[in-house]
Amino acid sequence: MLAVSLSVFLALLDYAIANVALPDIARDLKASSSASVWIVNAYQMASLISLLPLAALGSRVGFARLCRAGIILFMGASLLCATATTLPILAGARVLQGIGGACIMSVNIALVRFIYPHAEIGKGVALNGVVVALGVALGPTTAAAILTVASWPWLFWINLPLGAAALAMAYRALPVTPRTGRMPDPLGSVLCIVALGACIMGGDGLAHQEGWQLSSALLLVGLVAGAVLVRRESGLTHPILPVDLLRRSDFTVAFLTGFGGFVSSNLYIVSMPFMLHDTLGMSSAATGLLITPWPIGIMLSAPVIRRVADRVSAGVLSSIGLAITASGFFLLWLLPAHPSVFDIAWRTAVAGWGFGFFQPPNNRAMMVSVPHNRAGGASGMVQVARQAGQTIGAMGVAAFFTWSLAGATHRCLLMAGCVALCSALLSASRLVKKPR
C-alpha cells in the first residue's frame, strides 16, 4: 500500500505544481500568459483521454507492470520538463507526464482491490483518498516553497528522487495480478481519445465563448466518436469503454455520483480563490491557507470512514457525505459581505469533511460491483469520474466568469451546492429496493 501511495502522490503532486509558476515560466520561455496555460492543460487532457485505454492495457500486461512503466515514463518526462527551453517542448513533455500519470492512476484502485481482502477494501480506498487529497493540497504549497529558493525547473527535478523511491517500492511490493489474454482494441482506443479530447476542447471553447463555430464542430465530432465507440464496444469481452459495466445499475449510479461530486468540488476549488483574492482583498498566501481546510477536512474524515466503509452501504454513507458537502457550499454561498477568517475556514472544513466521507464508499461500490477480471476497467472509470468531473466543473466556472464577473463566485458556490445535493439524492436512490 505504501508503493501505491507513493505512486499516486507522485502523479497528483505534479497535477497542480506547475500552476503557481506559470508567470515565471512564461517570462523565461518568452511565451504569452494565455499560451502558458497549455502547460497545465496539456497534462490534464493527456491524462484524461488516455485513462481508459491504459486501464484496458493494464488488464493485459498486469496492473503492477503498468504502474512501474508509468513511474519510469513520468520520471523521463520530468527530466524533459526541467531541461525544456521552449514552450512547445515543455508542453510536449507535460503530455508525456500526463500519460505517465494516467498509467499510475488508471490502475491504482485495481491494485488496492488485490492488496486488501474483500472485507477490508473500504479501508484501502479510504487511505488512497487521503493520499489523493494530500497530493492535490500540497501541489501549490510545495511549488511556493521551491520557488522561494530555486527556479521553476526544480519543480520538475524534485520528481526524480520521489519517482526513484516510488519505483523502488513498486518493484519490491506491488502484487502480481491476473491478466487477460487479449490486447486492447486499437480502434476503440483511438475513438476513445478522439471522443474525450474533442468534447473537452469543444466544451472549453464554448465555456470561454471563443470561436463557437470551431468549438461546436469539435463537440459534434466528439459526440459522434463517442456514439461510434459505444456501438463498437458493446459486443466486446474486454472493451476500452466498459459498456458491460455501465449496464450494471449499481456501477452506473456510483459512477454518476462520483462524477457529480467532482463537478461540485471543482466549482468550489477553481472559483473560491477569486473571491478570497479579488473580492475580499486577501494576499496569495492567505488565499492558499484558506483553501487548506478543504483537504484537512478530507483527511479528518478518513479515520471515521475507514471504520464504517466496509460495514455500511455506499447508499447511506455517500449520501450523507455529499449532503454535508452541499451544506458547506451553501454556507459559503451565504457568507456575510465581510467574513472573518474563521467564518470561511470552518465552512470550508465542513465541505471537505463531507467530501472525504463520500468518496471511499462510492469508489468501493464501483470496485466490488464488478468481477475480478474487470477490475482494470472499473479502476479506469473511477479516475474518469474524477477527472471528467473536475474538467466539467472548471468549464462551469469559466462559463460563469465569462458571462459576468460580478457575483461569479457566488453563482459558482450556489451551483456547487446544488450539484452536490443532486448527487446526494442520486446516491440515496441505491437505498430504494428494486422490484424483482
UniProtKB/TrEMBL annotation:
Residues 1-435 form the Major facilitator superfamily (MFS) profile domain. One of its GO terms (cellular component) is membrane. One of its GO terms (molecular function) is transmembrane transporter activity. The chain crosses the membrane at residues 42-63, 70-90, 96-116, 125-148, 154-174, 186-206, 212-230, 251-270, 282-302, 314-335, 413-432. Keywords: Membrane, Transmembrane, Transmembrane helix, Transport. It is found in: Membrane. Pfam families: MFS_1. Its main location: membrane. It is a multi-pass membrane protein. Gene3D superfamilies: MFS general substrate transporter like domains (1.20.1250.20), Multidrug resistance protein D (1.20.1720.10). This is MFS transporter. It comes from Acetobacter garciniae.
